[in-house]
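Lay summary. Proteins are chains of building blocks that fold into shapes, and those shapes determine what they do. In this project we predict the shape from the chain. Here is one chain we studied, written as its sequence of building blocks.
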Amino acid sequence: MRTRKTGNPPGRSRSVEKHEAILAAALELLATHGYVRMTLDQVATAAEVSKSTIHLRWKTKADLVTAALAGMRMADMPPPSGDVRTDLVAVLADYAANFERVNGMALIGTCLAEEAHTPELLALLRERTIGPRRILVRQVLEQARNTGEIRADADLEAAVSALLGSFLADYLAGRGGRPEWAEQVVDLTLAALRAPGETSGGR
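And here is the predicted shape, written in a compact code that computers can read:
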């Protein structure tokens, strides 16, 4: 288990330190133990805080885990370049890296299996991680549509599902972890979205 740094750097409150330590501990335990086996007591021990400190910030384990996932999203991405292919590849590569970091397939399986008993887990996952990621991909596509790089009548929601959903399809087919995945799926999707006869800048 990772050891949290001690001390309180200038300009950084103790409350912020605790907040970040709890989120980091939750992500680490999610990756190593899985959602079902991780507990708030374990998070409290790893973050060196009391369980009541966690409950002051997050009501349930589902609330904490999805908040931690939301905080991780897009943390290491470069700023938008304005090039549709470059930006889509960056978004998908970040998505794949984060998904693998927290054993995302197991988390999705848990969300679906527990939907009847813990519906807030899937609802919060959609609100805090899936929804914002879809919005980000759609924004890149909308920009490309506005500049004429893809067809004006393109179904952007279907394109978003194709781009993000292909990662899960590859994983289930035993093709997960391919470093070239993001570039391949972006090229295939953009080829389908461009007007007939339009090229993709030599690609």
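What the prediction tells us: The first helix runs from residue 14 to 33.
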